[in-house]
Every structure is written in structure tokens, then in C-alpha cells.
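Hypothesis: this fold can be encoded by more than one sequence.
Test: take the C-alpha cells below, design a sequence, compare later.
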């Protein structure tokens, strides 16, 4: 009952975990999807209309193109005149200052006529207006031809050349009457302290004037009435038709901006995405139960699916480059490398369908991406070398270009009209696909997977750890190679991972390096166990498992390789030493913990295969005669014994698989040890024949 409750609790947790993944996936994808209203047609100029008859559901204007409106507005801006306020108090203050200065100090330097001249000319200058240097620079930079001078309740338009700047006013006063008034005397009066800007920029009035001017540009060129025919299936979308469609789309967006309508669109997107994700999860439940039950597989699949949908959505929303530069084919490639081809294809199709609903050409997009995904899956059926990624990137790019070129030939009448930018995007896409190799390392670290490329690198016998094993324990090293060959041959026949088990076999006994001489395959006539008790010998032999795990941790071996080290003896016993102890102590009960391996038992097909191959290969070395009968007996005895001990209860291996493994092991061992058929014995000969043979032998 306790176990049942625990299982039920674990089942509920697992269900909640999958439900959380489902809700998060659907929620994130739907949240970032564009919601542009009810006008969801996809079209482009000079392309055929793919839908049925379209009529106007309501009256709407035919809007001008944004570039046309901008051009007309720019043209009108040549008539724009900003407002400046005239401040008469500044002129009064300046003239009063001149009068005061004349009576205090200037009267000793200039005559009354000079004073009256300055007063009169300053009045004229201030009447026309003085503008600040910054305002004048801004006006000339923006090519303003005139300004409006507002005074009291009226305003008048003057050319930009009419008001003075401080510099121009100063120069005008000095040079206005050089015949009667000396410039040197005028300069001595410090005229700059009487010349101040009296025209100030009015930002508010200017903004209103600018807005009125821009708003006078008509944004529409006509009107489409409700019920009016717009376009029918198969018609080529001309420039005029395109403008009408764009106008209808714009008007539809305005009419559907209400909160209720946006919520309706959102929930429609949630339902659409939810159905697709639910179908994908159903596929996993029916055909890939191991992925469905393994959290890291589940998390990888949905993380990478969300990532690609978000990339496509954000690029479309912000019009960032082109969606075809996204290496969508990397998605099925990564899933194929870590999982399997069927799951890679299904997940790729689901993501492409979701992405297609917010793209301009969904059908072409689906055709291109599904083809590229199939090519990527096929070209990486077994990734073991970097060069395969270059080949895959080339094939995928070529498939993009070929399919797109065929579509161009069908849609365009002239090759010169083909859009070459698309092919540039495909080349960029191919370049991004080469990032698959470095990204594999991130996926391996983040999700705990291991790729064939990593396995091939680990199985290189020149790496430090394997080279050390071959030098310090050569017999063990040869044993590991033989075990790998046996297990890999069986793996091919039952659908297990060939490269994983071959690499795991190379490392499963690395712990023997610590006490290499205590293992028979490394002994050379001297057996150190003779000086030890059976318990001590058993502990030394058993310790090679934990010693191996410590070495694996030190050298950062992946978890999948550590699993082979810990499970290749499972929770079995060091039978030789246990039986020997029991024979010496027939009346005593042994302490089984001293003779038992720490385990655990195998929990995958691959670890089960390695346990079988390890025991069969080691025991086969003790055979005195390698006959077919002996080999068959030893294979059956060992594997049947392991099954009877319950070592394979926790791994997904079937009786049929085990029967196949036995047959492969027998065939491989017969080949390894060159067994021959037994020669028939010569029957008893007659005395005359024996005498004849004896004479023949003597003569020879």
C-alpha cells in the first residue's frame, strides 16, 4: 500500500509537471503572436489572389501610400511659417538706456545729432524686429522662407530676410549714414548694449500652424462603398487593387482595436496553438512513451519549439531582417541527434504550422521549411563527424534554393524578375546552420544529453584516460574492447544505441587501474589474492566500480558513461570469492554485504547489454575448449542466470531482445575464437590394416 501511494503521488506530480509545460508553451506562443484584427489575408503586388470573392463589408477610404503622403507633406512644408512674438518693451528699455547713458557719459563724446541719429535708427531696427542667432540658425537650417510676427491681436507675415540679427543690426547702424556720421565715433558708444532680440519663438502657435498645414494633406484618394466588389480568386493584384486591400486592412485594424475584439483574437490563437501542442503531446504518449516520461526529453522538445516560434514572431513583429535567415532546419537536426527522426519531423511540422499563421506567404513557407527539415533529418541520420554538418548545411541550402527557384518559375514570367535577395537569405541561413556543432555542447550541458560526436571523441583510444588504461591495465583494456564489439553487434540487432554502448564499454572497467594486478586479465603468473582473505579480495574487486566512478568524475565524463560503470555488475555478487568462503565455512552464514556490488541494476537497454557482454566475454576466456557447444552453453547459462537474478527488471528490454542478443553473442564468440566443427574419430581398424600402416610409418 505504501508503494502504491508513493506511485500515485509521483504520478500526480508528473501530470502537474506536464500540465505546467503545456500551459507555459501555449501561453508564451499565443501571447507573442500578432493580433492585427480580422483582415488575415496574405497577398502581394503582382501576385494572384488566392482567396474567393472579396467585397467591401463597409464604406472605407482608399488611403494614400505612406510615401506619397510624406512627399506631399514635405512639399507643403515649404509654405510653413513659424510664429514669433513681438516684444515692444525691449525696444522701450533699450531706448531709455541710451537716453540715460547720453546724459551721464556719452554727451562728452558725441554731439546731440549723434544721439538723435542713434535713437531714431534704433527705433527703426526694433520696429522691423531683432531675432536671436540660435533662432535664425534653426530657420535657415530648415529652409524656412518666412515667419509670422504676432503683436497684440494680429500677426503679419514677413520674409526671413526682414528681421535683423544682432550682428546685422549692429552693422546696419554703423553703415546707414557714413556721410554724416563717423563709424569710429558710433563704435565708441558701445552699441551692442542697446541691441537686444525682441522677437521670441512661440512654440505652441508654431506647432498648431505646422499641424494645420500637414492635416490639410488628403490621406485618401477615393472611397470604397459597402458591398462593392474588390477582387476575386485568380486575379492579379495590381497596384490599385493592392492599395485598396491595404486600405481595407488598415480600416479593419481601426475597427477591431476594442479590448473585447483583441481578447477574442487572443483566445482564438490560444485554441489554435493548444490543439497543435496537444496533438504533439498525444503523439509522444502513444509512440514515444520514454520521452513522455523523461523530463529532460520533455523539456528539450518544448524549449526548442518555444525558442523558434518566438524568434519568428519577434522578427515579423519588428520587421527585423528576413524570417528566412532563421535556421529552422536546426530544430529537427538537434532533436534527431539527441532523440529520433520521427519525433524530429513531427515537432518540426508543428512549429512550422504555428509560425506560418503570421507570415505573408504561409504555403511557400511551409513547403520550404518542411522540405529543408526532411533534408536535415536525412543527412544527419548518424552524426559522428564535424564534416557531416557542413554537408547538411550545403544540402539544406541547396534544397531551399531549388524549391524557391521552382516556385519563382511558376509565378514569374521572366527570370529577370526573380528576387535574388531570397537566395542571399538562404546562404545566411546555411551559415547559421553551422552553429549546430557548438550549440550541441550547450544542449548536452543544459539538458544532460550526449551526442554521437561527443561519444566518438570519448572513444578515441589516444585520449589521456584510455591511454592510461592501456598502459596500466593492458588486459583490462583488451577486455573492454572485446566487450564493446560484442555489445555493439547486439545493439544493432535490437535497436539500441550502438555508439553509446561501444563508448561505455571502453570506460566501464577504468576503476581496475587502481589495483590492476588483482584482476586475472592483468596478472602474469603472480596472484596477489593468495595472501588475502576472501572478504578482502572481494572488497578489492568490488571497489573497482566506485574507483571507476571517482575517475569518471575527475575526468568530467558524461552521466551516460558513468551509468555503464555503476551498472555493469548491478547488485550482483563476487561469486568466486563468496562460493570459496562458503566452501571453507559450510556451517557459517556469510555477510553478503562484503561480497555484493553497490549497483544499481541496469535501467536501459544499453546498460543491460553491457552487463551481458561483460560477463559473457570474461567467462568465455576460462573455457578450456572453444567448441560451438561450449560457447552456446556458457552464453545461455550466464544470461539466463542474470535474468533469474532479476537484473533486467528495471530496463526496457524484452525476451525477444534477449533471445536476439544470445544469438549474436554466440555468433561473435565463434568468430572471435575461430571454432571449428568436431572432426570424426577414426573407427577401429583390422590387424592387417594396422600392421600395414605401421610398416609405412617405419619406412618414412
Amino acid at each position: 500500500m505504501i508503494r502504491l501511494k508513493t506511485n500515485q503521488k509521483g504520478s500526480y506530480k508528473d501530470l502537474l509537471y506536464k500540465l505546467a509545460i503545456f500551459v507555459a508553451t501555449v501561453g508564451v506562443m499565443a501571447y507573442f503572436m500578432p493580433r492585427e484584427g480580422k483582415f488575415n489575408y496574405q497577398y502581394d503586388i503582382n501576385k494572384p489572389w488566392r482567396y474567393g470573392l472579396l467585397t467591401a463589408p463597409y464604406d472605407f477610404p482608399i488611403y494614400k501610400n505612406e510615401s506619397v503622403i510624406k512627399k506631399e507633406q514635405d512639399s507643403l512644408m515649404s509654405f510653413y511659417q513659424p510664429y514669433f512674438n513681438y516684444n515692444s518693451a525691449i525696444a522701450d528699455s533699450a531706448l531709455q538706456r541710451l537716453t540715460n547713458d547720453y546724459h551721464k557719459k556719452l554727451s562728452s563724446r558725441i554731439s546731440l545729432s549723434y544721439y538723435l541719429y542713434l535713437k531714431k535708427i534704433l527705433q527703426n531696427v526694433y520696429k522691423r524686429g531683432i531675432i536671436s542667432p540660435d533662432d535664425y540658425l534653426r530657420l535657415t537650417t530648415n529652409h524656412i522662407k518666412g515667419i509670422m510676427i504676432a503683436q497684440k491681436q494680429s500677426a503679419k507675415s514677413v520674409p526671413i530676410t526682414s528681421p535683423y540679427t544682432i550682428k546685422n543690426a549692429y552693422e546696419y547702424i554703423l553703415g546707414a549714414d557714413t556721410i554724416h556720421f563717423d563709424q569710429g565715433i558710433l563704435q565708441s558708444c558701445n552699441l551692442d548694449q542697446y541691441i537686444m532680440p525682441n522677437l521670441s519663438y512661440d512654440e505652441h502657435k508654431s506647432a498648431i500652424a505646422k499641424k494645420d498645414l500637414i492635416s490639410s494633406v488628403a490621406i485618401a484618394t477615393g472611397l470604397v462603398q459597402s458591398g462593392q466588389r474588390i477582387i476575386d480568386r485568380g486575379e492579379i493584384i495590381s497596384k490599385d487593387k493592392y492599395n485598396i486591400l491595404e486600405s481595407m486592412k488598415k480600416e479593419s485594424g481601426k475597427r477591431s482595436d476594442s479590448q473585447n475584439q483583441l481578447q477574442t483574437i487572443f483566445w482564438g490563437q490560444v485554441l489554435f496553438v493548444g490543439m497543435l501542442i496537444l496533438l504533439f503531446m498525444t503523439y509522444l504518449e502513444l509512440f514515444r512513451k520514454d520521452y513522455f516520461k523523461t523530463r529532460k526529453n520533455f523539456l528539450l522538445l518544448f524549449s526548442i519549439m518555444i525558442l523558434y516560434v518566438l524568434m519568428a514572431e519577434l522578427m515579423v513583429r519588428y520587421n527585423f531582417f528576413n524570417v528566412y535567415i532563421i535556421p529552422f532546419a536546426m530544430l529537427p537536426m538537434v532533436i534527431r541527434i539527441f532523440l529520433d527522426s520521427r519525433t524530429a519531423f513531427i515537432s518540426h511540422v508543428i512549429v512550422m504550422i504555428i509560425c506560418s499563421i503570421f507570415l505573408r506567404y504561409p504555403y511557400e513557407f511551409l513547403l520550404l521549411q518542411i522540405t529543408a527539415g526532411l533534408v536535415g533529418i536525412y543527412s544527419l541520420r548518424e552524426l559522428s563527424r564535424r564534416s557531416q554538418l557542413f554537408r547538411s548545411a550545403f544540402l539544406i541550402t541547396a534544397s531551399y534554393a531549388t524549391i524557391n527557384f521552382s516556385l519563382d518559375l511558376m509565378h514569374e514570367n521572366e527570370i529577370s524578375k526573380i528576387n535574388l535577395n531570397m537566395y542571399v537569405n538562404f546562404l545566411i541561413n546555411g551559415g547559421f546552420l553551422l552553429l549546430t556543432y557548438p550549440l550541441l555542447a550547450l544542449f548536452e550541458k543544459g539538458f544532460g544529453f550526449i551526442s554521437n560526436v561527443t561519444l566518438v571523441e570519448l572513444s578515441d583510444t589516444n585520449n589521456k584516460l584510455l591511454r592510461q588504461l592501456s598502459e596500466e591495465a593492458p588486459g583490462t583494456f583488451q577486455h573492454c574492447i572485446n566487450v564493446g564489439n560484442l555489445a555493439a553487434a547486439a545493439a544493432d540487432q535490437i535497436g539500441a544505441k550502438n555508439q553509446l554502448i561501444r563508448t561505455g564499454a571502453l570506460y566501464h572497467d577504468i576503476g581496475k587501474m587502481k589495483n590492476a594486478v588483482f584482476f586475472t586479465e592483468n596478472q602474469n603468473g603472480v596472484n596477489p589474492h593468495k595472501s588475502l582473505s576472501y572478504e578482502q579480495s572481494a572488497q578489492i574487486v568490488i571497489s573497482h566500480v566506485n574507483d571507476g566512478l571517482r575517475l569518471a568524475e575527475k575526468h568530467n565524463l558524461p552521466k551516460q558513461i558513468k551509468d555503464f560503470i555503476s551498472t555493469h555488475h548491478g547488485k550482483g555478487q563476487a561469486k568466486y570469492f563468496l562460493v570459496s568462503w562458503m566452501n571453507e565455512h559450510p556451517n557459517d552464514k556469510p555477510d553478503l554485504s562484503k561480497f555484493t556490488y553497490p549497483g544499481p541494476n541496469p535501467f536501459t537497454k544499453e546498460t543491460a547489454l553491457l552487463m551481458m557482454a561483460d560477463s559473457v566475454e570474461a567467462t568465455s576466456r576460462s573455457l578450456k575448449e572453444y567448441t560451438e557447444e561450449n560457447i552456446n552453453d556458457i552464453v545461455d547459462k550466464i544470461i539466463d542466470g542474470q535474468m533469474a537474478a532479476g537484473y533486467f527488471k528495471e530496463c526496457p528490454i524484452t525476451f525477444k531482445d534477449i533471445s536476439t542478443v544470445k544469438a549474436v553473442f554466440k555468433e561473435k564468440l565463434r568468430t572471435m575464437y575461430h571454432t571449428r566443427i568436431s572432426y570424426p574419430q577414426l573407427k577401429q581398424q583390422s590387424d592387417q590394416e594396422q600392421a600395414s600402416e605401421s610398416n609405412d610409418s617405419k619406412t618414412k
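The chain has three domains: 76-215, 288-447, 452-672. The CA atoms of residues 321 and 354 lie 20 Å apart.
Hypothesis status: open.
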